[in-house]
Amino acid sequence: MKKEWQQQEDGVFKVRTCGWSPPGDHPVGCGMHLHIKDGKLIKVEGDPEHPITEGRLCIRCLSLPEYVNHPSRIIHPMKRAGERGEDKWQRISWDEAWDIIVEKINYFKDNYGAESIVVFGGTGREACLYYYPLGFAAIGTPNVCYPQSGWSCYGPRCAITDYILGAGYPEIDYAGYFSDRYEHEGWQLPEYILLWGKEPLKSNPDGFFGHSIIDMMKRGSKLIMVDPRLNWLATRAEYHLQLRPGSDTALAMGMLNVIINEDLYDHDFVENWCYGWDEFVERVQEYPTDKVADITWVKEEKIIAAARAFAKAGNSTLGWGLAIDQNPNGVQLGHALLAIVAITGNLDVPGGVTIGPPASLMGKWRVETRSELSPELWDKRIGAKEWPALSTALATTHPDETLDTLETGKPYKLRMGWFNSSNFIAPTNSAAPDRWYRALKKLEFCVVQDVFMTPTAMAFADIFLPLSSFAEHDGVVVTHYGRNAVFLGAMNKAIQVGECKSDVEMMIELGKRINPKAWQFDSVEDFFDFQLKPELGFGFAELKEKGLYQPDYEYEKYKKGKLRADGEPGFNTVTGLVELSSTLFESWGEDPLPYFKEPPYSPYSTPDLYKEFNLVLTTGARTYASFHSEHRHVPSLREVVPDPIMEIHPDTAKKLGIREGDWVVIENMFGKAKERAHITPAIDARVVHAQHGWWFPEKPADEPSLYGVWESNINTLIPHKHIGKLGFGGPFKSILCKVYKAEDQNFYK
Ligand SMILES: Nc1nc2c(c(=O)[nH]1)N[C@H]1C(S)=C(S)[C@@H](COP(=O)(O)OP(=O)(O)OC[C@H]3O[C@@H](n4cnc5c(=O)[nH]c(N)nc54)[C@H](O)[C@@H]3O)O[C@H]1N2
Ligand SMILES: Nc1nc2c(c(=O)[nH]1)N[C@H]1C(S)=C(S)[C@@H](COP(=O)(O)OP(=O)(O)OC[C@H]3O[C@@H](n4cnc5c(=O)[nH]c(N)nc54)[C@H](O)[C@@H]3O)O[C@H]1N2
Ligand SMILES: [Mo]
After folding, report:
1. Whose C-alpha lies nearest to ligand 2, atom 15?
2. Which of 93, 409, 578, 700 is the most buried (most CB within 10 A)?
């Protein structure tokens, strides 16, 4: 990339950067130039030199000036000047904010122990590198909580990979590691790309740039989509397996049945690198394709054809998405999917599935900061003992257990909350948000860091700390948080808005005040030098110059002793092999082999409820115009998706007297939400899909409205703690509901 990361042209100052929130996105680090005039962000342009995104940007980046310059942004620290839930605030200085916060933290620590403080954080925005150390090393609490029931995002996939493969996150090999990308010698085009419960064009999840699917399809790769909805990619797929939501594990086992019984697997890999083959073969016999077709609603011929195509092809790859995590049977699903990849010989080979070394760089550092806590304090982490499979792989509390603790005060009372990057009573990060709402009200003191006032901040914040967008601060993008990092990118500060600060700045400033010995950084640059230099040999200034650093990739690491600390060939698991039968699952009292279990509420597991709630509901498929609860106030994005949308098949809509655009109520035994019907044959007549993350910044702020947060809150339909035996996976993508036309069609009164 060109050396100059700052340029001046016709009075416009242009700064090259890689974006990584806020506003939210996953660490894809899209390359762009920010255009600044008279100290204001006026335009964003894609950077054609960025080797991954090659100038392509989505509408969320293109509309960044509207977000950054938005009149309702909070740009100074504030303290509550009325009751919680009342829109009354007083501007204060940063010093005053820190004084209040530090005094409170010390008070709770001295009187009740540091464990009485809980830090909440959301999804993989830049913040998720920093809320762990904010909790562990600045505040000093063992309780850092990602509040999604069953930790239903990414964590399960990482944990399953740790336990089954002993490696970092498995990713589609899209040549992202190489500066010459698809031309790289030694890289191969995958013949098939199997996308399972993932729509990466819209989501670009966790460091994977979705458009690389299109790049590879243009070069000849073929697609297999496993998705209950016919989305844009599915229309271009060679096979679309349109399954019943939540029936995935049965489908994966059915495909394995074909691959094994038709002898389409890689004998060499199975013999040398897999553990538990005989039991595994026996288990898949329980899933003949005719039975699987009945369970999944996918035609038997299609299951067989797709399994054969994938297994008979040369190198092929798999991308597994959120539908693996948001499923109480998802651990078994992930296990089965890794087995498909492994036994077809597609692991760690060109054009197959890449696996990383264990987390490195900042991803590793963030969890290692827990060494600041005494073993006694670490022992108090909520839910760690009850859920060892979750707490071994993840350094957080157990989310569901955290709600129980808030509600019951057991094993101890939580008194202070720090909301880092989670607007979670908006229908995003929690199931049963109404219960969280009532429980969080009990906290005695709350700090919220955010860019805008949100329903969560309005309900709970006593102190509001204003956050800078990625145009306003320095940072480093690390794809997959170091677990399988395709690249590191420099995020460059271009402007300052008000008194806003970044997560890194706030973490360091608080850390210096509370635990100075752990925070001896003179500046943000100093902090990034500390992160980068030991591993890369160069610091932040040089990364800015380079723009991007791609580390290269070594295939077949397991043959060369590159996955294990002892340098022996094999995988970093208990047996040293890919565990088709999991020794760890067994030690935690779980079946060591994958099995299908019906979702907790489904046509077959709860047939009586299905009589009334006669549709299967899946939620939250991503849209281009928002990131969870964010972007609802950005005018040009809101124009694209002005209202919450649910999708329903024409036959079902007709039966229910629902027309296109009608407001409908989606209701089940747990809650209800109002959304607007979009009638489409792209969804099965027995299934509906509803968007999540809706609140209405234009509605009244004060309680009980809280920006209309309870009106279209689809997560009130998702129950608390209906999770898998190992503690993972809530039923966000598979629950029952009924749908009827809303009596009141005039939503905006
Ligand atoms: N029904 C249903 N619910 C779902 C899902 C679904 O598919 N269906 N998906 C779930 C998934 S996978 C996830 S990960 C969660 C996500 O849930 P969350 O990550 O909790 O997302 P938000 O509720 O949007 O809250 C994020 C808040 O952080 C602020 N923010 C943005 N960037 C930054 C930053 O860099 N630093 C800080 N400190 N704050 C920032 C935003 O302004 C916003 O207010 O939602 C889950 N909820
Ligand atoms: N624009 C945008 N991008 C985002 C986000 C956002 O809010 N907005 N959120 C980010 C976050 S936190 C995450 S975790 C990722 C998630 O990104 P993805 O992993 O791509 O997940 P989703 O978009 O939730 O769903 C992907 C597909 O799964 C399908 N699906 C629904 N139910 C099932 C099921 O039971 N089985 C199967 N096999 N498929 C099912 C949906 O129809 C959808 O097409 O996106 C990230 N990127
Ligand atoms: Mo997520």
Report:
1. 205
2. 578
Answer whether 27 contacts ligand 2 (Cβ < 6 A).
no
Dihedral over Cα of 605, 607, 611, 616: its sign: positive
CA 100/CA 107 separation, integer angstroms: 11
Is pLDDT of 748 > 60?
no
- Write down the pLDDT at residue 358: 60
Instruction: Tell me how many domains the chain contains.
Output: 3
Give the phi and the psi of residue 403 in degrees, each rounded to 5.
Answer: -65, -45
> Can you give the CATH number for the domain in which 374 is found?
3.40.50.740
Is the minimum distance from the CB of 424 to ligand 1 under 6 angstroms? yes
Q: Dump pLDDT digits (tens) for 334-369.
A: 999 999 999 999 999 999 999 987 657 788 899 999
Structural domain containing residue 375: 78-147+360-470+499-521
8 Å CB contact between 374 and 114: no
Radius of gyration of the chain (CA): 25
Q: Is residue 227 located within the same domain as residue 367?
A: no
Which bound ligand lies closest to the C-alpha atom of 198?
2
| Number of Cβ within a 10 Å radius of residue 125 | 25
Alpha-carbon gap, residue 422 to 692, rounded angstroms: 14
Work out which ligand 2 atom sits closest to the CA atom of 154: 14
pLDDT tens string 573-604:
999 999 999 999 999 999 999 999 999 999 99
Nearest CA to ligand 1 atom 26: 422
97-136 residue pLDDT tens? 999 999 999 999 999 999 999 999 999 899 999 999 999 9
Nearest ligand to the CA of 201 is: 2
**Where is average pLDDT lowest: 222-226, 429-433, 641-645?**
429-433
**Which residues are bridge partners to 579 per DSSP?**
275
pLDDT at 416: 98
Pair (336, 192) in one structural domain: yes
Q: Whose CA is nearest to atom 28 of ligand 1?
A: 421
| Ligand 2 near 205 CB (within 6 A) | yes
4 pLDDT tier (thresholds 50, 70, 90): confident
Q: Choose the final residue of a domain: 587, 615, 633.
A: 587
Contacts of residue 448, Cβ cutoff 8 Å, sequence gap at least 6: 419, 454, 456, 457, 460, 461, 463, 464, 465
Q: Is 126 in the pocket of ligand 2 (CB under 6 A)?
A: no
Whether 682 and 582 map to the same domain: the answer is no
Quote the DSSP letter at residue 731. S
Q: Which residue has the tokens 């999840």?
A: 205
Q: Which two tokens stand for residue 410?
A: 């057991």
466 alpha carbon – ligand 3 mean position (Å): 24
d(CA 191, CA 543) in angstroms, rounded, equals 35
- Sign of dihedral through CA atoms 565, 569, 573, 576? negative
Task: Give mean pLDDT, residues 526-531.
Answer: 96
d(CA 268, CA 417): 53
Contacts of residue 431, Cβ cutoff 8 Å, sequence gap at least 6? 148, 149, 715, 718, 719, 720, 722, 730, 732
Would the pTM count as exceeding 0.85?
Answer: yes
Report the pLDDT value the prediction gives residue 427, as an integer from 0 to 100. Answer: 67
Give residue 58 CA to ligand 3 midpoint distance, Å.
18
